[in-house]
Amino acid sequence: MTIKRTLAMLPVLFGIGLGAGLGVSAPAAAQTKEVKIGLIAPMSGPWARQGDLMLKGANLAVDDINKQGGIKSLGGAKVKLLVFDAGDSVEKAKNAAQRMIAQEPDLVGATGAWLSSFTLSVTEVTERAELPVLTLSYSDQITSRGFKYVFQTSLGGGAQANQALPALVLLAESATGKKPTTVGIVQDNTASSVSFAKPMREGGLAKLGLKLVVDETFTPPLSDCTPLIQKVRSSRPDILLLLPTAISDDKMCMEKLHEFGLGRGRIPVISNGAHIAAPDMLKNANKELLEGLMTVVGNWSGKGQETIMKEFVAKTGEPWITQDSLSTYGDMWIFKEALEKAASADRRKVAEAIRAMDTHEGPAKYFPGGRVKFDEAGRRVDADLAIVQWQDGVPVLVYPTASALAKPIWPKN
Fold this sequence. Notes:
Layout: H1 3-22, H2 26-29, E1 34-41, H3 48-67, E2 78-85, H4 90-103, E3 107-112, H5 116-128, E4 133-135, E5 150-152, H6 157-176, E6 182-188, H7 191-207, E7 211-218, H8 226-235, E8 239-243, H9 247-259, E9 269-272, H10 279-284, H11 287-290, E10 294-297, H12 306-316, H13 323-342, H14 347-356, E11 358-359, E12 372-373, E13 386-391, E14 394-399
Parallel strand pairs: 1-2, 1-3, 3-4, 4-5, 6-7, 6-8, 8-9, 9-10
Antiparallel strand pairs: 10-13, 11-12, 13-14
Helix pairs in contact: 3-13, 4-5, 6-7, 13-14
């Protein structure tokens, strides 16, 4: 062997000798120090407030996980949250997903993207990258495409409508002594609203003996909702299903209902989604305007979650924890559970661990139904809906009964 070749071999020989002398294998020497999880949500535009609430829930979970020792099966690796702005359009959300995949090849998973239309676009990108994504978005299309790396923690919009409407009709009948016979729908054209209203139009209303007397769809954001509410005033439905997705549209419609003499229970209003129960609604509309308004959501805090409710308020300064924060908090704990089981930061192994998960403990306590198990399509098994009602200036859980913090009140006017 020449002197030149011997010198060239020294780093290799020294490395082998050092590893053998310390009794450390190459994989152990390269122990994972942190695992990266993405949050892709609107951080700008009309849905930025929801993205902010998701971020607060995710940050709180990451802090709690890391304070409790991180991912123990990975030697205490810390969780690191990376945030990507989905913006205010489907195209921007898709571009954000592409940047996320390109810039962070070692991501183990992601949660997002709040608006179902965004989630549908984002998951087209993440599915090709085999990146597991947890989402609270409602659209039934999300888990109807044969994807293997998308996991929907909320009950789908269609199932929410099918389960909620009979309960609401019964509530109305028991409170007023008569069964409602007419209903109005005012909705935007985003995917979650479309998914919620679709089964009603396709036989759900008729099955319950309800006649659709107002049926209006708009593209958000609204510049003026007067024509929409004028049609509601003309038809006077027994129940109004008000289905925007932006807080600004919620506020505008509620104010116009009040202006036309239809607010405060004269026409019972049911919405869908947590935006209308966000703290910002109370900042922009007085509590009398919101009193009695109900919304059907995929998640909300209730009995048994007092600790996280108090911790969230204390650490974020928010007046209460919403679906957006609670679900994202729970998502982080699902990833933590999957990482522990996988004992690997390989995203495919993490996805396998999520598919194999079936627990009523740990992350399950943060979701209605109390179970984390996903079927082959990625839908959470035994997922339940939640119904929230504004009562005395606070949105409180009134259904499911077992975890409700108050009894529902149906306006009698």
